[in-house]
Design brief:
Layout (H helix, E strand, L loop, with lengths): L1 E4 L9 H25 L7 H20 L3 H5 L2 E5 L6 H30 L6 H4 L9 H28 L6 H6 L1 E5 L8 E4 L1
Helix pairs in contact: 1-2, 2-4, 4-6
Amino acid sequence: MKVQVLTKPRVAGGLVPRAAALIVDVAVTVPASQALAMLLGLPSGAAAPIWLVLFSAYYIVCHRLWGKTLGKRLLGLRIVGTTRAVRVPNLLLRLVVEFWGPLVALAIIGLQWDATSGLGGVSSVTVAPNSLWSRPPETLVRMLLVPNIVVAIPWLAGFLFALVDRNRRALHDRTASTRVIYEIHGADEPRDARV
C-alpha cells in the first residue's frame, strides 16, 4: 500500500531577506577582492574589476553547488528551479539580468569620465577614483546621478515583479526559471512511502 507523505510547502523568500543576503554576499566578496588586488601588487582601484569577476564566480558556483550563497544560507534562503534543476547557463542569465543596472550605470559613468578627462579608457574610473572628487559639483552630478537615475528606474522595476507575483519572483527569477524559497527542512516535493 502506498501512502503519500505530506511535507511542508515551499514558502517564497521575501524581498527584505533577499536584499539582506545580497548585502552579506557583497560584504564577503569586497574585502576578498581588495586582498587579492594587494597580493597581486595592483593599485587599490583595480579591486573593482577583480570584485566583479570574483562575485560572479562566487554567485554561480555557490548557487550551482549548494543552491545558496553565504548570505542566503545565513537568512535561510535557497534558489530552486521552477521546471528543473538550476544549471550554470540559467545562473549566468540570472546574474546578468539581476545586475544589468549597476553594470550599465558603471559603463555610462566610465564613458562620461573618458569623454571629460581624456584619460583614454573606460577603466579610468576604477583606476583613478581619487581624481573624480576634484571635479566641479555640477560635473559630478551629471556623471554620477543622471546615469544612475536613468538606469535605476527600469532596473528597479524588474524587482517590483516580486511584489505582485504570488511566488515573489523578480524579473531575474522569471528569465532564469528560478525562485527563491525559505529553506525548510523536509520541504521537498511529496514522495511516496511504502507502508
